[in-house]
Every structure is written in structure tokens, then in C-alpha cells.
Amino acid sequence: FNGFTFSTDKTSCIHFCRKRRLHPEPEILLEGQLLNVVNEIKFLGVTFDKKLTFKPHVMKLRKKLDKTLNILKVISNTSWGASRTSLLRVYRASILSKIDYGCVIYGSARQSVLKRLDPIHHSALRLCSGAFRTSPVESLYVECCEPSLDHRRRILTLHYYFQILSLPGHPFFNYKESQFIFRLQRARPSVIPSFFTTVSELLRNLNLEDLQVVPNLKLHLTPWKSHGLKFLNPFKTFDKANTAPEVYQQLFADHRDIYHNFIPIFTDGSKGSLSTSFACVFINSTLSFQLHSSCSIFTAEIAAILHALNQISRSTPDNYIIYSDSLSALESMT
């Protein structure tokens, strides 16, 4: 192991088990020495207990955050203290970051355990906003633009789930929860749901069950070097407010005369109050697609260009030219 050795004195094991009756602990030997069986162990900053209640982790985190909260108490003086913006930045960097770390794992704990972190969150928001002790916590969330810890854990859980779906090489990329687990949790609601069961419930409540996640493709481009992608903009020297539409039409006609041997493809994206969509117009066909309503107009424009490139890659080799009215989308690719 290139100089790496195991220390039997520093090595311990933990038996994850929910049995309540007496049962023998596992006997694991390392270099002939019996390893010590512990009730809890810390791994990558998260404390795991043998019943996976995560109560020891939350209690240790609460004790650590109590000390960190003193920083906000010192710099939130009303006469010489920091501004609200600065206090919120300190809170997010020194306290909220510690709460977020590992919350996808310890978020499966009981609500009675997780609620022990809420007083820290509420006290910090009161210090940052200067609100009274009697102010409702819902008002604090709105005033400081910070969600509750429970809502924040749900957001981070979905972020991690979508990250899994965007990485084809992830071990859980094609994971499907077994029906046995679903039936068990329906029959025994007291059983703590697994990660994928929790995500499935969140997606169902948000009506996102049919959401398709585009895999994160491996790009072999070197960002520190110019990759040579360029686009044509014959209208950049003309002011849109002071240029007649006929001038643009004539410029486009001249442009098409120069590139008459290129097959034109037109792309466009649009966003309304209820939906986002894009379209690609080819010589003999027009294709339109609808995206999720949460997608931006920039996403629609980029998706339209990407779809046009995919169609070109499947077509007969020839000269093609793509027309887009989104300058931001074109500039982002250069």
C-alpha cells in the first residue's frame, strides 16, 4: 500500500442493527487482534450510530453551532455592528454550511431529532434581521429570504438526486427502488423511508415524476485554450432602434446570397407564463418541443441549437448554417 499501514489501536468497527434483544457483536480480527466494536463512528464528518438514528451527529452539530452562533451575537451590535447583508453572509458561511453538509444522509432522522437544529436557524435569522424574539418564524423566512431547514433539506436532496441522474457513471444512475421496499413502507409508515423513496414522494408532490434529466456529457474541450468556435453577426454594426426592418431584410438577403450553398436551419425559443418551448425549422420540416415551465428562455435557445446540431449529425454530410436570434446563446459557445 505504498507505506500505508493499518493501526489496530485506531481501527474500530460498528454493527448497524435494529435488533432490540441481546445479540452477539461481530468478531473481526486485524493482524490477529480483535477490533473494538463501538456504538458510533465518525466518517467524513458525519457521525453514524449503530441504529442510524443520527441523533449523536445532530447533538454534536448543535453543540458546535452554539459556539459559532456567538460570532453573530458579537458582530450584530445595533450601534457598531455589521449590516444585515454582511450578517447573512457570515451566517451562511459559518453556520448554514455546516448544517447543509451531509444533510442528504442525516436528513433521514426523525423529525423530533432534526427539529433540534431549528432554534439555531431561527436565532441566527433574528440576529441578522434584528427581529424581536416573538416574531413568527415564517416572517423571518420571508424577511431574510431563507427557507426553513426542512424545506432546505428537501431542495438539497433533489439537487443530489438530479446530480446522480446527470452522471451516467454514478453507481446509482440506473438504480430502481424495489417494490418490496415500497410495500414495506406503506404497511409500516413508522419505518424511516430510504433516500429514493423520499425523492419519489417529493417528485410526486411537485408533479415532476416525468422530468427527464439530460446526462452531463464529458467534454474534451480545453477551457484554457481557444477552441475556435465563431459565429457570424452581420447586424452588429447597426443600431436596432434606429434601423428600419427593410435594412435588415436586405442584409439577410445579401448574406444568403453569399452562403447560398449552405443549407439553412432556423432555431428559436419562447417562454410564456405556463410553458417554455423551442422549435427548429428545416427546409422540408418544422420540429417543435415543449420544455418544463421552470426552464429559462436561454435554456430554450440553447436546446434548439443543440437539437439542430443533433439533426445535422444524423443527416447527409453537407454544408449547414444555423440561424438564431439569441446573441447570448451564441456568445456563450465562443
UniProtKB/TrEMBL annotation:
The lineage of its organism: Eukaryota, Metazoa, Ecdysozoa, Arthropoda, Chelicerata. It comes from the Eukaryota. It comes from Araneus ventricosus. GO terms for molecular function: nucleic acid binding. Coiled coil: none annotated. InterPro entries: RNaseH-like_sf (IPR012337), RNaseH_sf (IPR036397). This is Uncharacterized protein.
